[in-house]
């Protein structure tokens, strides 16, 4: 056009700016702006100036957009919308919300785009009060919200953890699209209500609203966390029927879902059918094997990947966990050497995992050497080395490290106290263990979990303080008492507290009737006390549900 010496007009420049915006090409956008200034066309009209503000905002130059906005004498709603939208796209949510406030103060009536943008700013900042104020402004002004604005309002309430209000708005919508449904489902999933998210998915499917890839991924993640095999299988069927199986991201999530449901064979079959396997595919399958104790399969899978795809820190961490399960020192050293060769030795997560691996392979000195040479030690690093000394029975050093950790102003967490309590339990240090438990609840306000209760009960039971252990069990929630009751029952059998042991055993059978270990422990208690009829009765009950003794085993690395 320029070669033919044809001068562009306003429409041409607006079209060029829109093209630069779509391409996110700031350089070309500036050139068009410069051309307009040189030709005296920079203040042509409102449409050109609004398009210019929009271009700068969407091309990552919000300051230039604000400058262009400030140079305007007359600002229409379109200009305000362009700059507010630019701020939002660049993550400057506070600036967007502040500009919305200034706009209202200047008595400029917002349109639906402005309202949606203001609500989006509140959602991203989790400003519930301001979001409710805008909602109130809409109601008072009798503004009818369109689909976009209503969806933004639902998102705001979801992100501010007000799911009841969000659901009321969602249910009141005359027309729902996949975006509004995704927002509502994401709100439920973010707050841990996976069943409600699945309910919405079922409704939109029946209404003929097709889910997006993001919807499928979110639902699969929810079912993975719920370990809901049946609904997961149904969703997998939906994926196959509707052509989503070609998406590697979705296939990876299906692998994870089946693995977390304990269906490793199905998970591996899905993995084998993935046409374009990426690093996530291999790592997900490896993690599934490791979480179910199939360390040898995880290592074999890694070896099949080796040379095709370069592992990242997550893959190597998973591989180290597999090595820990096998107690294979030579493999741990090989992985450690590889980590040095690829310059990943400063990765704090990998180093923490190496500390645990060496400790589990019997090399406590190597674990400590790694810990001491770390440039920066995070809480997980301290947890790893404390647990290492605890598992090797060196409780005095574990407690010393625990004190050093607190001196470094690093607050212990649930994992720290699990390691300390476990070490105290195995070493018979009752007073130290009780002090640690009290410190956890009173000093650090940590709510005890099943592992903590189990450690304390095990600690008391091992030294024969059965009555205290029994009183302790009665104080905490029954849902968290299975492991602790097992420890107490074992203590009753060893120290011959038949009466408490019988009560404990019956409690265990009521809580977890399918657990074969409960029948075995109670049967042994009766047999140890000479109550052979009761022992036979419990054994018969166990055999009726198909209980089998799981043989114990140990692993050592064979020297070649």
List the helices and strands and how they pair.
Blueprint: H1 10-22, H2 26-38, H3 46-58, H4 62-70, H5 77-89, H6 93-105, H7 112-125, H8 128-140, H9 147-159, H10 163-172, H11 178-190, H12 194-206, H13 213-226, H14 229-241, H15 248-260, H16 264-273, H17 279-291, H18 295-305, H19 313-326, H20 329-341, H21 348-360, H22 364-372, H23 379-391, H24 395-407, H25 414-427, H26 430-443, H27 450-462, H28 466-475, H29 482-495, H30 498-511, H31 516-528, H32 532-544
Helix pairs in contact: 1-2, 1-3, 3-4, 3-5, 4-5, 5-6, 5-7, 6-7, 7-8, 7-9, 9-10, 9-11, 10-11, 11-12, 11-13, 12-13, 13-14, 13-15, 15-16, 15-17, 16-17, 17-18, 17-19, 18-19, 19-20, 19-21, 21-22, 21-23, 22-23, 23-24, 23-25, 24-25, 25-26, 25-27, 26-27, 27-28, 27-29, 28-29, 29-30, 29-31, ...
């Amino acid at each position: 056009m320029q070669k033919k010496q044809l001068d562009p007009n306003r429409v041409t420049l607006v079209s060029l700016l829109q093209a630069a915006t779509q391409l996110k090409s700031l350089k070309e956008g500036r050139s068009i702006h410069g051309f307009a200034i040189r030709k005296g066309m920079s203040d042509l009209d409102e449409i050109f100036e609004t398009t210019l503000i929009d271009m700068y905002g969407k091309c990552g130059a919000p300051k230039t957009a604000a400058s262009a906005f400030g140079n305007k004498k007359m600002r229409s709603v379109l200009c305000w919308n362009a700059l507010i939208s630019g701020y939002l796209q660049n993550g400057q949510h506070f600036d967007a919300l502040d500009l919305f406030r200034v706009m209202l103060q200047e008595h400029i009536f917002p349109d639906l785009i402005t309202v949606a943008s203001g609500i989006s700013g509140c959602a991203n900042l989790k400003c519930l009060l301001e979001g409710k104020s805008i909602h109130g402004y809409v109601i008072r002004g009798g503004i009818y919200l369109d689909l976009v604005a209503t969806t933004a309002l639902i998102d705001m309430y979801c992100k501010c953890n007000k799911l009841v209000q969000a659901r009321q708005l969602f249910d009141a919508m005359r027309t729902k699209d996949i975006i509004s449904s995704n927002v509502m489902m994401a709100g439920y999933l973010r707050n841990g209500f996976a069943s409600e998210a699945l309910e919405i998915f079922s409704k939109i499917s029946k209404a003929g609203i097709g889910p997006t890839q993001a919807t499928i991924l979110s639902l699969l993640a929810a079912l993975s966390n719920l370990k809901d095999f049946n609904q997961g299988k149904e969703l997998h069927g939906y994926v196959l029927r509707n052509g989503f199986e070609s998406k590697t991201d979705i296939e990876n999530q299906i692998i994870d879902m089946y693995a977390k449901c304990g269906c490793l064979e199905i998970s591996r079959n899905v993995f084998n059918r993935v046409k374009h396997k990426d690093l996530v595919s291999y790592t997900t399958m490896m993690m599934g094997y490791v979480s179910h104790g199939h360390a040898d399969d995880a290592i074999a899978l890694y070896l099949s990947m080796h040379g095709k795809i370069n592992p990242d820190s997550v893959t190597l961490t998973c591989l180290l966990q597999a090595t820990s399960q096998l107690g294979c020192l030579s493999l741990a050293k090989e992985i450690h050497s590889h980590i040095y060769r690829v310059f990943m030795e400063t990765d704090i997560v990998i180093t923490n995992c190496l500390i645990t691996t060496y400790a589990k392979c019997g090399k406590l000195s190597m674990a400590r050497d790694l810990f001491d040479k770390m440039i920066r030690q995070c809480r997980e690093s301290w947890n790893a080395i404390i647990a290492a000394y605890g598992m090797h029975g060196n409780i005095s050093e574990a407690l010393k490290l625990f004190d050093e950790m607190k001196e470094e102003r690093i607050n212990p967490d649930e994992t720290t106290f699990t390691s300390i309590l476990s070490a105290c339990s195995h070493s018979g240090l009752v007073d130290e263990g009780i002090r640690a438990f009290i410190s956890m609840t009173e000093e650090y306000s940590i709510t005890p979990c099943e592992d903590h209760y189990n450690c304390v009960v095990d600690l008391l039971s091992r030294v024969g303080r059965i009555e205290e252990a029994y009183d302790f069990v009665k104080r905490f929630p029954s849902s968290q008492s299975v492991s602790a009751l097992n420890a107490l029952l074992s203590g009753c059998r060893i120290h011959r507290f038949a009466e408490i042991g019988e009560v404990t055993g019956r409690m265990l059978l009521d809580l977890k009737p399918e657990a074969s270990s409960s029948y075995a422990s109670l049967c042994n208690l009766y047999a140890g006390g000479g109550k052979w009829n009761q022992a036979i009765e419990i054994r018969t009950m166990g055999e009726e549900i198909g209980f089998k003794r799981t043989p114990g085993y140990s692993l050592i690395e064979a020297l070649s």
